Amino acid sequence: MVLLAASICTKAGKPLVSRQFVEMTRSRIEGLLASFPKLIGGSSKQHTFVETDTVRYVYQPFDKLYMVLLTTKASNILEDLETLRLFSRVIPEYCKTVDEKEVFEHAFDLLAAFDEIVALGYKESVNLAQIRIYTEMESHDERVYDAMRQSQERDAKNKMIEHAKKLDREKSQKPGGISSGGISSNTYNNSTHEGKIDVTLTPITFSSNPSNVIHPSTRKAMKLGSKGKNVESFVDQLKSEGEVIGSASQTQTKTKQQSQALPTIPQNEVHLKQEEKLNVRCGRDGGVENLEILGMVMLRVKSEEYGRIFIAVQNNETRNIQLQTHPNIDKKLFISDSLIGLKNPEKPFPINQDIGILKWRYQSTDGKEIPLTINCWPSETSNGGCDVNIEYELQNTNLILRDVIISIPLPSGGQTPVIGRIDGDYSFDSRKTCLSWSLPVIDQSNSEGTLEFSVRGKTADFFPVKVEFVSETSFFNIKIADVKFVDSREFVPYSSETSLVAEKYEYV
Known about the structure:
Elements (H helix, E strand, L loop, with lengths): L2 E8 L4 E6 L5 H15 L7 E4 L3 E7 L3 E8 L4 H18 L5 H6 L1 H11 E2 L2 E2 L4 H8 L4 H34 L13 E5 L4 E5 L30 H10 L7 H13 L9 E13 L5 E14 L7 E7 L6 E4 L5 H7 L1 E2 L14 E10 L7 E9 L4 E10 L6 E9 L8 E5 L2 E5 L4 E9 L5 E9 L8 E7 L6 E8 L8 E14 L1
Parallel strand pairs: 10-25
Antiparallel strand pairs: 1-2, 1-5, 3-4, 4-5, 6-7, 8-9, 10-11, 11-15, 12-14, 12-24, 13-15, 16-17, 17-22, 18-21, 18-23, 19-22, 20-21, 23-25
Helix pairs in contact: 2-4, 4-5, 6-7, 6-8
């Protein structure tokens, strides 16, 4: 392995954040970093290195800290310095000032960025912009959960307010209150436009037994408006009493989330995950500025018994995509036989780790390549308003898109749009002034759809339009064909899953 560990340490050699890329104990890392200040001897050089009998330290000093890479003595020093520069540029990206407090606060962000730079001890072909994109990926499940949580809290507060008003009305209508003898009741008429319906309340009498008497002083009443009230428990209590909790928008969100969730794949001893990330940038007039697809196959082996295997890949793709195997994979074997295996077939794959074994990249500016096209037509009216017509069309009918959300920005001011026609559901966020058009599934049966609405604004206020979706169908015709043992070439039971994610899909 080339790169052993990447660490941020103090001038005295105390490690603040350290990421090991090989099997190394904590005491080993702490010992190497503790001896580091003695080896450099107070050197003030900006980029330099020192060596011992076993390892090489490549480091860059900051005001109070060091960025240190631990490598083997056989590694290429020029590549090490290039990797060090990338690590050093990542730190100010997350830390406003390079000191202990900032490093501790952003430790997990730094570790995630370190993992994007180095995989299995070798530097990945990435730049700072790509690292920023990979580490700042948003989770749609998290956004759905936050929206549901806010909706629950809002509905629970409204329910508590209504309950408080109801208690006040009941208290004002009771002349004598509660006594041990009984509760008086009246007869009232409930009138409608068609006629009158007489409803009589039967008096309810409690027993004189003191154990059956309800005492107001000992009864646990619900405290309304108190700070720190657990809204979740109140919602659960209302549900247990038969109350229907949740607004129409919340019900739609729950239904959409349940119907759109991708099925969970049970994992065998050998599990393969094929994931593609789609980045699309189109002009508002329809031209494609950039289309980029990044794909990767991840391998996870649960036990050492299945570690020595070959993975057969079936590549029927006719487009010119750039396939690249991991440096530890036998590239000649992959080119000749479409088999993925280690350069040393006697060694097993790492156990219980998600390892990237194959990746590909594709770029194009052909408008026919994008799977889903969006056509946004805002038309200004004479009264200062705007009529907006948005259409989608599924160009690649082999794909089944799920969890589709088309987000349209609206003019500031929080004015609610008037919906004229819609295929699917919608929600309006007045705080973010954004209209979200959601569809559970887009496939051949509903390959086209329309949304029409009116709101005050200008033509430029409705861009950029952003699209989100997931699919369990891959974009390219690349599949895992088979998994076999290295020695016996017998079939290995395996599980696999495929996903296509719209990472950044927008019309500007």
